[in-house]
Amino acid sequence: MTDITAQTAPRARWLTRERIIKWAPLLVLIVLVLLFPFFEWLEDFRESKEHLYLADSRFFSIRNAARIAIASTPALMVAIGVTFIIIMGSIDLSMEGTVSVCAVIFAFAFIGWGGTLTSWAWLAIPLALLVGAVLGFINGLVHVRLKIPSFMASLAMGFVGTGFALLLTGGDRIRVEDDLFRSLLTVRWFNFPIMCYVALAMLLIAWFIQSRTTLGRNFYAVGGGEELAHASGLNVSRVRIMGFTLAGIFFAMGALLAVGRIGIAETATGNNFMFISITAVVVGGTALWGGIGGVWNTLVGVLIVNVINNGMVVIGLPSYVQDGVLGLLVIAAVVLSTDRKTVSFVK
Amino acid sequence: MYELRQVDKHFPGVHALKAVDFKVNRHEIVGLVGENGAGKSTLMKVIYGAYQPDGGDITIDGTVVRFQNPRQAMNHGIGMVFQEQSLILNLTVMENIFLGYEQQFVKFGVIDWKAMAQAAKRQLAKVKLDIDPATTTSDLSFAQRQLVELAKVLTLEERIDGDLVILLDEPTSVLAKEEVELLFGLVRDLTKRASFIFVSHRMDEVLELSDRIYVMKDGAVVDVVAHDEAEVDAIQHKMVGREVDKEYYREQKQKPYDAGTVLVGFDKVSCGRRYSDISFDLHPGEVLCLVGTEGSGREAILRTIFGLDSPTAGTVTIKGEPVTRFAAQGGVSRGVGYIPRERKIEGIVAGMNVYENMTLSQMGNYSSGGVLKVGEEKSLARAWIERLGIKTPDVYKDCGGLSGGNQQKVVLAKWRSGGADIMLLDHPTRGLDIGAKEDVYEMIREMSDAGVGIILVADTLEEAIGLSHTILVIKDGAFQKRFDGTPGAKPTLYDLVHHMI
């Protein structure tokens, strides 16, 4: 069998455009990781201090790697959620509202039911995930049943969420001070706090969903060719609603880790997640028109974004420069991943 | 006046125009007829500058010209009225008429709408259309839009010196009978101002309107007839006259079908304006071919069987069960497989690999509790790669990177492996090279041996005749005639064309 196919198939070139695009984000990440220590070395070299490249770097150290990892985990959860949606060719902008609502409801329930994981308060965790799922489900329902474009439906739902979170808290911050829950951040295994391992586990689950379940396959089918998916007997509406529900669960997971990281739940918990997560997904190489990419791309994207943020702090650039650099990065990523010869007009 | 001499055009694998001579005289209406794929549209694209010929000359009044794009052709007085109306519906009529040429009305950077409206009014008067130029185009009827389009092309008259040549591509396809008459009267009137090239698949209309008729076949002009000598029969013979190779369509492998069982039954089924009162039965092992021109309702019938379109009247039965709910999921679960015309859009998902595409319609069979059994998917894909000789390095290859013929095989494998025993094939060989076409013919025979009922919309008439047990001719959504296609007693091309147009 292999004989027939092997002899007639055209030999694949090793360095194809596809392959370059596929691995470019990882390459960028590696370059960035080596670039920031170089700036540090350059500075010390100018001042004629002794500095061994990498070994004496403040950036290139386990301690800093843990710092980047901690900053990345909540964003990674949110970005994974939105990855599924973008693979479907839609977009979900409700993450800030959803994260805030989940964080606030989690904190209220957690404190109300005992305030420590050893009591019934642990139920606040599944509750938060359920709330995320419900919000995502409503989001999907609004998008599919009312036929509102996903970006508008989810943006509106996000605002509703932010408003609802503010209504619940009245603007207050809720402190979650249970030591066991805070051990997400405080207890470290091999220099990295537990929350990083939780995030890793969720990443593996997301990978499983993406590659081994019918739902994951359906995301790619809908994103790659909605008409065709429909003509193959797929229930596209159902796939979309389930996608938004799944994204909601991951947003809730992001909310839990965000609360675990700073110990506070408030309306502002969700702030900045929209820009960071969408930037990460795009920079990681998932195509905005759907069908291409995946959760590993998103991991690389989240790390790129956080490495840049962290690295610029280490070498002492002001924060407004950081935002500008991230904005440029998004444009560069989209430019690199789009074959502009085939796209004549962009709306 | 306007003349093509020995014009050639090649595409990869196709010799689309073969030494075509074509001439338009002043104040003349020239008709252009030919089967689908005879080269009419290529020739038109060369004329209005969308394609550049590989060989030969284009001359206007004896001077050789060369157009890089349609705009240059327009500057030489060649205008095109498109079949799929090219007006922008959310703009007003006058904006459409002067689209791209607004500069003449601009004063100090601002458009003088009054001047534009007046100018538009003058253009509309040429086509005898009395409407407010500030009307939004989407508010007009199809016939009115067609006239606006014509008015738009006629602005060339003021813009350039010299004569106009205007191409009309199937201008009557969306018009009612009276509207056609109106348009023809107008075109005859306008021959004072311009020459016309009239392309249509409605033979009677071409005969009625044209002074001379060019007949094309296989990329060449096979005849030029004057209005007075034109005869429908003779022209139809010239359009299709060709010997059919029995070997090519695997006619020797055509076996009688099982007439006792009915897979798909259509009983006086209608679907809005697409088709009406269609009845037929499809039996196991039968290849039933729907023949008709573009837009005659063939595709709509396929879509109804698959469940994408709901009929407005009549009953559809699949395997003895009347169909009540029309949805694609239902079609798939009843064992219907659909191979649509646009392979890239509706056939395979580019970006997904071979085995993912094959199991797309039957993921339920390859998963339990929502978790996929990837191992089984891959062995399925390997088995079908071998069975159909799909040329792919491995099962992980992105289907978007396969050749057209191999993509088609993947789609076939998708439905066949899922147990589909009713196959709807819409132009399954379109865009394939000869070898790949023969593979598809081979597969069709193999499926019919296995008792699959096939409804085919063929790419050419020869294909339809060569492959089918039964041929239904459809014209403008209405059933015309049924032909029996037993080997040795197959209808001729001429028999079919006669009922088609």
Q: Helices and strands in order, then pairings?
A:
The complex is a heterodimer of chains A (347) and B (501).
Chain A: H1 2-8, H2 17-46, H3 62-87, H4 95-112, H5 124-145, H6 150-169, E1 174-175, H7 179-186, E2 188-189, E3 192-193, H8 194-212, H9 214-224, H10 226-231, H11 236-262, E4 264-265, H12 273-283, H13 295-314, H14 319-337
Antiparallel strand pairs in A: 1-4, 2-3
Chain B: E1 2-11, E2 14-24, E3 29-34, H1 40-47, E4 55-60, E5 63-65, H2 70-75, E6 78-81, H3 93-97, E7 106-107, E8 110-111, H4 113-126, H5 142-154, H6 156-159, E9 164-169, H7 177-190, E10 194-199, H8 203-209, E11 212-217, E12 220-226, H9 232-240, E13 264-271, E14 275-282, E15 287-291, H10 298-306, E16 313-318, E17 321-322, H11 328-333, E18 336-339, H12 343-347, H13 354-358, E19 367-368, E20 371-372, H14 374-388, H15 404-417, E21 422-426, H16 434-449, E22 453-457, H17 461-467, E23 470-475, E24 478-484, H18 493-500
Parallel strand pairs in B: 3-10, 3-11, 6-9, 9-10, 15-22, 15-23, 18-21, 21-22
Antiparallel strand pairs in B: 1-2, 1-4, 4-5, 7-8, 11-12, 13-14, 13-16, 16-17, 19-20, 23-24
Helix pairs in contact in B: 4-5, 9-18, 14-15, 15-16
